[in-house]
Write a structure and sequence with these properties.
By secondary structure, the protein is α+β, with helices and mostly antiparallel strands. It has a four-stranded mixed β-sheet with strand order 2-1-3-4. It is globular, with a radius of gyration of 14 Å. The N and C termini lie close together (about 5 Å).
Length: about 120
């Protein structure tokens, strides 16, 4: 099985999901999204695959959230996606994609539903 994980090694949820993928024997493509942020189009695609609005992927505790006034834009997916692309620390993690689907894997055990 192949899997892609948008990963932050400093995050315990992200490390946990990666470990579960590796334990399951998945061939994992690890994307350090802080160094290589997804494009706005890719973020939009991931959100569609997960069936969630942009606000559900947004980390509201990041400084950029307040600095950019995002609390007043929670219904504007395009603005939130642009902010997440420009400030990838705003993206909640880990996002995992397999042939079974795409999900925000918080807690990490959510990744189990994406495994064969």
């Amino acid at each position: 099985m192949k899997a892609t994980i948008w990963h932050n090694n400093r995050c315990s949820n992200s490390r946990g999901a990666l470990a579960l993928l590796q334990e399951a024997g998945a061939e994992v493509e690890v994307i350090n999204y802080l160094d290589a942020p997804p494009s706005e189009a890719e973020l939009g695609q991931l959100l569609r695959e997960m069936g969630m609005p942009a606000r559900e992927l947004l980390r509201s505790k990041e400084a950029a959230y307040a600095e950019l006034g995002l609390a007043g834009q929670l219904d504007d997916d395009a603005a939130l996606i642009k902010a997440m692309h420009q400030h990838p620390a705003l993206i909640n993690r880990p996002i995992v994609r397999t042939t079974k689907g795409t999900a925000l894997c918080r807690p990490p055990e959510k990744v189990l539903a994406l495994l064969d």
